[in-house]
Amino acid sequence: MAPKKKFSKEQIIDAAFEIAKKEGMETISIRKVAEKLGSSIAPIYVNFSDVDELKKEVMKKIIELSNQLLSEQNSGHPFRDIGVASLRFASEYSVLFRDLVMKQTEYMENYDEDIGHGLVELMKGDSNLEGFSEEELMTIFFKMRVFTVGLSVMVANGLLPKEFSEERGIELLNSTATDVITSARLSKGMVDEPH
């Protein structure tokens, strides 16, 4: 009898991620991952107690991917970079985007606490947002998140005209961010506009 193949935890997570990327998070099953690896289910159960534990690890990988897309922007304006990274995620990983944003899912229950506050911390380093309190930054972030998610949903679902490019999406993000920040400055009695 041939020896059983061994797979690292990372290889199993990668296989599950590939399934989620093409078919969605809910389609991940131990059997499907085993088939993807060309294996029995035994090596998966050596590393994971059940499919939920594996899905949580896939979600961690998705968050790492999201953070990587954000770090690749690095324009010097983190607020802008957050929006561009979101658009890229929606475009390049549309199935995952739809899964995480358009479906009521346990994976996004703590988004504002887990990710939102981290993004607000990044926003504090943006020269366009100087002078705003944490609460004001959370409001600005929420307003832009509503717009960005809407635009990203349109990107992920192919609802934009064919000639709509990533550059046009970035222009829209920039002009909307300027509008939101300018409005917040006016409400606060600050007269200068963002750079």
UniProtKB/TrEMBL annotation:
Domain HTH tetR-type, first and last residues per copy: 6-66
Gene3D superfamilies documented for this protein: Tetracycline Repressor, domain 2
DNA-binding segment(s): 29-48
InterPro entries on file: Homeodomain-like_sf, HTH_TetR
Keyword vocabulary terms for this entry: DNA-binding
PROSITE patterns: HTH_TETR_2 (PS50977)
GO molecular function, one term: DNA binding
Pfam families given in the database record: TetR_N
Keyword Transcription part of the UniProt annotation: no
The name this protein goes by in its record: TetR/AcrR family transcriptional regulator
